[in-house]
Design a protein that fits this description.
This protein has about 160 residues and is mainly alpha-helical. The chain has one domain (about 1-164). The protein contains eight helices and no strands. The chain has helices at about 1-15, 20-30, 40-50, 50-65, 75-95, 100-110, 115-125, 130-164. The longest helix is centred in the C-terminal third of the chain and has 34 residues, at about 130-164.
Length: about 160
């Protein structure tokens, strides 16, 4: 049982996969093993998804700035910084005071390329306040968990009804 929780935890920490892959994996474990506790799985997924966030917020921009003048990675890092600044300025203009809500929705809508990693990186590049950024990301992760769970419940329910 511990291995299943560990898999869910590690999946939730992987960029691009995050809880969008960890929650369906947990539901798959639940189908295979009725003793698998989904409440614990949700807690583990949330913790795993949030562990990298402070590190990304405080260090990702510094790493990009450091690498911007390096021979092999410089062009890509510079591109990321410039793209982030341009996109951030546009988002600031459009969202205004709604930047918190925009970040929350960006993290919360479970599409490829959105999530805690990308949202935190965007908040860092936009020089957003740490506390409000983290709160927006936490609420976005909760929203994404609800959406992914509903989809999983509907999907697994349909699959079990057909295969059952």
């Amino acid at each position: 049982m511990f291995k299943k929780y560990l898999v869910v935890f590690l999946l939730s920490m992987v960029p691009l996969v995050e809880l969008r892959g960890a929650i369906p994996a947990a539901y798959g474990f639940k189908v295979d093993d009725p003793a698998f506790n989904m409440l614990w799985a949700y807690i583990i997924v949330a913790i795993g998804n949030m562990i990298p966030v402070p590190f990304i917020f405080f260090f990702a921009r510094k790493v990009l700035e450091w690498g911007a003048d390096k021979p092999v990675i410089g062009k890509f890092f510079t591109f990321c910084l410039e793209k982030g600044h341009k996109g951030g300025e546009k988002l600031k203009e459009k969202a205004g005071r709604g930047l918190f809500v925009a970040l929350l929705l960006f993290v919360g809508i479970p599409l490829p390329g959105t999530g805690a990693w990308t949202g935190t990186l965007a908040a860092s590049i936009l020089d957003m306040d740490f506390k409000s950024s983290i709160l927006a990301v936490i609420l976005g992760v909760a929203l994404a968990a609800v959406i992914v769970s509903v989809v999983c419940l509907l999907g697994f329910g349909a699959w079990l009804g057909i295969a059952g």
